[in-house]
Every structure is written in C-alpha cells, then in structure tokens.
Amino acid sequence: MAATLRDVADLAGVSFKTVSNVVNGYPHIRPATREKVERAIDELGYKPNLSARSLRSGRTGAIALAVPELNLSYFAELAGFVIAAAERADLVTLVEQTGGDRARELALLQSPRLRMTDGLILDPLGMRPEDAAALDVPFPLVVLGERTSDWPSDHVTMRNVDATRAGTEYLIASGRRRIAVIGEHEDEVIGSARLRLRGYREALEAHGIDYDERIVARAALWHRADGARAMRELLDRGAEFDAVFGFNDTLALGAMRVLQEAGLRVPEDVAVLGFDDLDEAAYSIPSLTTVDPGREWIARTAVETLLERIGRGGAELPPRTKLADFRIVERESAPRA
Amino acid sequence: MAATLRDVADLAGVSFKTVSNVVNGYPHIRPATREKVERAIDELGYKPNLSARSLRSGRTGAIALAVPELNLSYFAELAGFVIAAAERADLVTLVEQTGGDRARELALLQSPRLRMTDGLILDPLGMRPEDAAALDVPFPLVVLGERTSDWPSDHVTMRNVDATRAGTEYLIASGRRRIAVIGEHEDEVIGSARLRLRGYREALEAHGIDYDERIVARAALWHRADGARAMRELLDRGAEFDAVFGFNDTLALGAMRVLQEAGLRVPEDVAVLGFDDLDEAAYSIPSLTTVDPGREWIARTAVETLLERIGRGGAELPPRTKLADFRIVERESAPRA
DNA sequence: TCGCGATCCTACAACGATGCATATCGCCGG
DNA sequence: CCGGCGATATGCATCGTTGTAGGATCGCGA
C-alpha cells in the first residue's frame, strides 16, 4: 500500500499535520523538523493522495479540453499547446473528443466526467446559438470559437471573419478573380465555416466581385478526404476558378492533391490558400500558403483565462472575449502578386 | 454549491446511503423508492463527487497517456484512438507530453501527477535498457514500443523489425538496390529507430546487398523538418540512391518535398517509402506508400491490457507482450514492381 | 399468532488530506 | 518578573462517498 501522511509522521516522530505542513510549504517549521520529515518522505516514497487532497480542498489540479478529434491536425496541435501551457501552471489535462457532434458537446457539459476537473476548455463545432443556456454551467468554462452575443462564457478565438477577408484579398491582390471556396456548412449559423464564408464574401464585395454559389463547395468535416471530394465535385461539374480557398489546411491539401491529379498546375492554373498554418503546410508540394490564426496564442490564452476564473472561485467576472492576431504565411501555392 | 448525496436524501426523504445505493445500481430497492430518489436527483441536478468517490473506492476512472508530443501526427492519431477506446470503457484520459526526453519520461513515472489515474500507457522514446528499474512502479503500466527482455511491464507494440524488413524487401522487389534510410538514432539501443534499422539491414543482407553508411541519415526528432534536413544532407554530400525509406511518414514526406525541390522525380528517380500510414500519407503528391503498423489495434489493445491489470488489483500477472500485425499500403511514391 | 428468510433501508466508520483553532515554547520590552 | 507576541507544532472536524453490519418490514408457512 502507498504511504500516507500518517505513515510518514510515525516514522519522523511528528504529528501527521506537521507532515502536511511540510508538504505544503507552510513557513513556520524548524529546519531540523523539516529535514526529519523530508527524510521520512523519501524513505517511504510518500506521494500525496490527490483524491483526498481535492476532496478536501475543492481543487483537482486538472483541466479538461474538449475538441472534435485529435485526428485532425489542427486540434492535435492545439491540444499540444494547451497541454504544455497547462503543465506550466502545474495542471494536468484531460482530453475529450466530441466528434464535433452537437449532442455529444451538450452531453459533455452535463457529464459527471468533468467533475474531476477544475474547468473546461471547449472547442464546439456543432453547437448552435440557441444552446446558450447549456453553457451556463457551474464550473469555469472557456469556449474556443466565435461567440454569439448572448453566450455567457469566456471566449478565446481567432478573427475568423477578418482573417478570411484578408486571405481572400490576398488572392485578389495577386490577380485572381474566380476564387472557389471549400468548407462551407450551409446549416450552420455561427461556426467557423459560416464566419469564414462571411469574410470571404465581404472581400469579394469590397472589390466588386460577384459571389457565385457554383464555386462554393460544402465539406461537413474538414479532413483531407473531404477536401478532395469537394474538389472532385467542383471539377466534375465544370466549375471555373483560378484560385481555391480551403477553409482549413487539410481541406486545402486534399483539394490541391485532386487539382494536380486532374493535371492542373498549382499555382499557375489555380492558386491554393489554406487556413491554420499546420506544420505540414510547409512541406506539401507545392508548399501551402495559409492563414496563421494564432493557434499557440489561443491555447496559451485559453489556459490563462480559465485559470483566472478558477482562481476567483465563484467571484463573478463578466464574460470576456479575447481575439488572436492572424497573419498570412506566403508560400508557393499562392505567391503574392 | 453542488448538491451532495445528503441533499438528495433530504429532498427524497430517505437516508443518504439509499441514494448512494440508487446511484450505484444496488438491486434491492423498491421501485417507488428508486423513483422518488431519481426525481430528487434530477431536481437538484446531483452529480457524484468523483474525488470523494475515488478517495473511498481507490479507483479514479481515469488513465494517463504519455506520448512525446501531439504535434507529431503519429502520436496525435494514436492518442485519438486511445481516448476513444478508454471512453468505451467509461474512462477519461489524461494526456502528458514528454518531448521524447529520457529525463522527463523517468520523472513522469515518479510524478504525483499520476496519482490521479488508475494506470499509465507510456510511449517512451528516450528511455534506455538500463532504465528497467524505473518501470517497476506501484501502478498498472503498459509500455508502447519494443521491450527489452528484462523490462517488467506489459508491452503492446508493433513488429518494428519485421515491418521494416518487409518494407525494405518491398523496395528491393520493385527493383531498387540503393535504398537510403532517414531516421537513424545512433546513440539508441532499443528504440524504434534502432529496431527499424535492424529490419532494414536484415533485408539487405538477405538479398546480398551491402549496407552502406553513407546513405543512412540521422534524424533525432521525426518531424517533417528533420526529414527535409536529412535529405538535404544526403543530396549535398552527393549520396547515390534510388529509394528512400523514411522511418516514419513525416520524415518521408519532408524528404520527398526536398527531393522534388531538387528536381528528382518520385517514384521514377527515387522511390519513397514511409512508415505509420498517417491520414495525410494518402493525400501527399505523390501519395505515400507506407507501412501500416497497426496503430489502432495497438491503442485498443493497450487500453484493454491496462484494464486487465487495473481489474486484477494487485494480483500478479506476468508481464505480457502483444504485437500488432502490419501491412504495406501501396501508393504512388513506391509502386510495387 | 409466531418464526423465519428475503427484501429493503439505515447507521456508522472509514478513505487521506486540509483549515481552523489551539497548545506550547522562547524571548523581548516594560 | 510578567504579559504578550511570534514561531512552531498539534488536534479535531470535515470534505462526499462507499463498505459493512445490522435493524426494520414484509410475506408466508406452521
């Protein structure tokens, strides 16, 4: 059996409370006592029982991160950054996958699985504006992704609209006029897909280019295969375009693959722009020009924001929204001008 | 404040232990009582306090997974599978990143951070054979990656040697003779890098091909950038080869990128073979022929194996080794024959 | 009517830690 | 020489749950 405070106390010849004080860095302890206790701790290999500690203290030292799936590189890289940021604050991270499914996202917010954590960072894909009430939970919550005005929680997110507007304008500035889009979600109201489409349309409008539904392709999920499928559809129906804006890098990479299979040259015939700046975007052939939405900043800030709320206990802070800066990373698939 | 068993009991007019019995599915409860209790639970939104439960029961309902980093797609996809498998067994998964660093791997095995879990699945990259003692831990442990004979824990792993031998033979069968390798770790004794090199050498030997150090390139980490760097080195020093075996897909993809920058055609001039069968291997240009080492099976089996040990409590099972089947996935970068 | 087992429910004591209140000591200033 | 204060160590209650043991209630046969 694992050693407890009592065992250590017996060995060191002090009360178990004193051991607790040593472990917790209580200042008023004579060096001699401290040393005796520490020796006993080492000898027994004592490790505090975290269940007991958190039962008593109300803190678990863990946070939860819920993303659609780690199989999508964007979320994997995001998760990596979140875990690293949490670790710096001495927190462990529990990762949940929702599949981007609304029902599972909502279920998770109710689930007792989270009672083991001090708070949740949620990246919802399926939730709708009317789900605001579900976000009114009795634990600290930071939502990643754009907020609607009445969502009650903290938000840390990217400038979806601004970034896609800038991306689209980048393509326009390089001389493209027929810019296809891959990744639309038609039944969505506030998700990234919808916001990115809005940015795209704003840019077109600002430059007097008509919006043409025929070159806007859906993709329910954002895997490579979905991008490939969408591009095949566009090609099959004979759509005309001189650029493609994939609403994320994996879509763009899947699409780029199909373009080249079809004998089209990138970027000569069709420029390709992605979104996310995944590690792999720098190593595709051709390398992928993309929008870096500030993923690492988002991860770090999400953890910080959650910690602020955890720190305050119940003290009410108003819901805050924090926005990352973005930038366009120019590579081969869509050269500037 | 969150509701407790007592609150529910008061509302339902029963003892708090009865509520506990209802929650835990104890069979001998009158339907009327059960219903009363359930109504009270709903009304108060009662959720069991997992810290208290696990303090009392000794089980936490969580497992830990330690991988080098989620930024590497292989580990991200593996983590996704592990989390999914754990969820099916009603376990949550806590993810740690070790950076593949020996010191951090060893530290993790001692860390109180794990006391919050029922067991650990560890994918060590930096540990050495002499670290066997560190694996003798007082909690259930499953190690991913090849075992040395005296490591005391369960192992679930891939057939590194067999798979690379088969991969190398596949290239040989397709007519290649100068097969470069990317990903060697010279200071390693038992890691995947060393084992894969062994498989490679066995295949060469079996076919009477001399091993040539000049076409074996190191890569300490296995990112795309490392593969690219290694390939640049090979090219710079004028190495001659007609195939490249990347010891994982990201290395192979990085290398393939550099090959094509250098004006070499894949597969005509140089065939490229990867290892892992990542999602993205199917969408590169050209698509990547690769060895599928049975990642999903490994994830599922690791969780099952850990659960068996958790179930037994302290009961001694001998350490077991379970090996996944592999297969070669033929794509464009290295066509068969 | 009583006895007896099955069924249903309850009381109490843990699990291992922390917070608070309190004891003990030595030392200083008045 | 005493009161009081800071430094050090302790004891007890408590967090919310489950395990164990035992008390109440019921139906049914004798």
Write the layout of secondary structure elements.
The structure is a homodimer of 337-residue chains.
Chain A: H1 5-12, H2 16-23, H3 31-44, H4 50-57, E1 62-67, H5 73-88, E2 92-97, H6 102-110, E3 120-122, E4 141-144, E5 154-158, H7 160-173, E6 179-184, H8 192-206, E7 216-218, H9 224-236, E8 243-246, H10 249-261, E9 271-275, E10 289-292, H11 295-312, E11 321-324, E12 327-329
Parallel strand pairs in A: 1-2, 1-3, 3-4, 4-5, 5-11, 6-7, 6-8, 8-9, 9-10
Antiparallel strand pairs in A: 10-12
Chain A binds a DNA duplex (30 and 30 nucleotides) through α2 and α4.
Would you kindly provide a written description of the structure presented here, covering whatever features stand out?
The structure is a homodimer of 337-residue chains. Chain A is an alpha/beta fold and 337 residues long. Chain A has 3 domains: 5-48, 434 Repressor (Amino-terminal Domain) (Orthogonal Bundle), CATH 1.10.260.40; 62-159 and 295-326, Response regulator (Rossmann fold); 160-293, 3-Layer(aba) Sandwich (Rossmann fold), CATH 3.40.50. Chain A has helices at residues 5-12, 16-23, 31-44, 50-57, 73-88, 102-110, 160-173, 192-206, 224-236, 249-261, 295-312; strands at 62-67, 92-97, 120-122, 141-144, 154-158, 179-184, 216-218, 243-246, 271-275, 289-292, 321-324, 327-329. In chain A, helix 7 (160-173) packs across helix 8 (192-206). The first copy, chain A, is elongated and about 85 Å long. Chain A starts with a helix and ends in an 8-residue tail after the last strand. The model of chain A has no long low-confidence stretch (mean pLDDT 92). Chains A and B meet through helix 4, helix 5, strand 2, helix 9 and helix 10 of A and helix 4, helix 5, strand 2, helix 9 and helix 10 of B. Strand 2 (92-97) of chain A pairs antiparallel with strand 2 of chain B. Chain A binds a DNA duplex (30 and 30 nucleotides) through residues 4-6, 14-18, 20-21, 23-24, 26-30, 33, 48-58.
